[in-house]
Amino acid sequence: MKKLVLALIASVAILLVPAMAQDKKLKIGATTYGLNAEFMQIWSAALKQHPAVKSGEVDLTVFDGRYDALVQQEQFNTMITQKFDAIIFVPMDVEAGAAAVQAAHDAGIPVVGSNARVNSDLLTSYVGSNDVEAGELEAKAVLDKMGCKGNLVILEGPIGQSGQIQRLEGNEKALKACPDVKVLEKQTANWSRAEAQTLMENWLTSHPGQINGVIGQNDEMALGAIEAIKAANMKLSDFAIAGVDGVTDAINSVKRGEMASILQDANAQAQGALDVAIKAAKKDYKPESPIWTQYPDMKWADGAEKDYLVPWTPVTAENADKLLESRK
């Protein structure tokens, strides 16, 4: 009887070994440029809602890069030392982030870019949106309201981040079609509503009655400009204002007719990037996020595409309530 029990225990142990091996959690880290503003908070929350995270297939760690490329480099070092299976990277700086990608590549850890670009050929893939297109769309919304004449100001993202570089390219592309429009000021407000409000207050003082339009390279900065205009007791209807991202306050502002905005789908970018990262670490993986059905033009291609581009959605009075409902 004793021998039979031992034999049964041995058999169960043999069966459990491959099962335990299959159940091994993947360790995946995501370093974001910063988590102070709503957009990256939505992006990070979407990662945590991914089916592979909720089921326990993936052990996910999200790092706050605190708007500092050196902090992100240290976070990469931590993930390399702890032998993470894959890394998702939302870089603060298009150039400085390349060294971190190189270090992970040298350690045999795949890196998937998301939301912001890094100047490296070593990424497994990139899952984001076309920022040149966003810059052109938002500038066109401002210029159309201005009737292609007058003066405007541009609130830029952090200098050296891909969103700032590419959205400015799109801004300038749209401006070429309106040669009579003059850019009075162009300065970074670092994606910050508070910084943008201060800048706009200064510009309203230094260019009294001359500013007709505001291009905010993200919604937070456009909203900061709106606060400055309100604080100066000026009429918002006298200004053409646009931003990018489709954050909650911007959607409500669009509903009130105060600004234009373009939704950047943080959920699709984050969950798409995680699917690609899992695939890079686990070759037989099939995508689990519903975003591939939501955007059929983004072909999964077995996770091997170099770029997966999530389309933009203009925020309108007609779709605003639906977009707000999706945030709940």
TrEMBL record:
Q: Residue ranges of the Periplasmic binding protein domain? A: 32-282
Using the record, list the residue span of the signal peptide; answer none if the entry has no such feature. Answer: 1-21
Alphabetically sorted, this entry's keywords are:
Signal
Entry superkingdom:
Bacteria
Instruction: Give a yes or no for keyword Transmembrane in this entry.
Output: no
Which cellular component appears as one GO term in the record? cell envelope
Write out the GO MF terms. carbohydrate binding
Q: Where in the cell is it found?
A: Cell envelope
Q: Does the keyword Signal apply?
A: yes
Task: Give the UniProt family note.
Answer: Belongs to the bacterial solute-binding protein 2 family.
Q: Write down what this protein is called.
A: Substrate-binding domain-containing protein
Organism, scientific name: Rhizobium sophorae
